[in-house]
Design brief:
Elements: E1 3-7, E2 39-40, E3 43-44, E4 54-56, E5 59-62, H1 70-74, E6 79-87, E7 93-100, H2 104-114, E8 118-120, E9 122-124, E10 129-130, E11 132-142
Antiparallel strand pairs: 1-11, 2-3, 4-9, 5-8, 6-7, 6-11, 9-10
Length: 143
């Protein structure tokens, strides 16, 4: 059994906004969540804008792929881990949450690796760094 390791497949990001200058793997921030707006009569009013609009998306500057846990590789356990996190204005992954994972050890491997990732943060129209949300798949395969 050969160990293939972890890969981050290109173009498998869900809820893709049009990325600007994003190298492979593709990483994009989805649209901000809907905010309940007051309804007056039969017309819904748009909510006020809380965060500045994102002009450019965050770009991966430095990454380390997750280490495949040996015990899972020996047992032939693999699969895809979906991580959802924010890229802060300082270019670090924050509030990492695992959306889907076949095993807790794979989740931990992804979370540990994301702590070391560095990004060029997303920028607002006036050039200020802004916090953005990202969703990224990691695939663990045993060959």
């Amino acid at each position: 059994m050969a160990l293939a390791g972890c890969t981050v497949p290109p173009r498998e990001v869900v809820e893709i906004a049009e990325p600007v200058g994003v190298p492979s793997p593709s990483v994009a921030a989805p649209a901000p969540p809907m905010i309940d707006a007051p309804i007056i009569g039969t017309r819904r009013l748009d909510p006020p804008v809380v965060t500045p609009a994102v002009q450019t998306m965050a770009v991966i500057r430095q990454r380390r792929l997750p280490r495949y846990p040996a015990v899972l590789a020996e047992d032939g356990i693999g699969g895809q881990v979906i991580a959802v996190f924010h890229v802060g204005a300082e270019g670090k992954a924050e509030d990492v949450r695992i959306e889907r994972s076949p095993h807790p050890l794979l989740s931990k491997a992804v979370t540990d690796a994301l702590e070391e990732w560095r990004f060029d943060p997303a920028r607002s129209a006036d050039g200020r760094p802004v916090r953005t949300r990202m969703r990224l798949p990691f695939s663990f395969q045993v060959e």
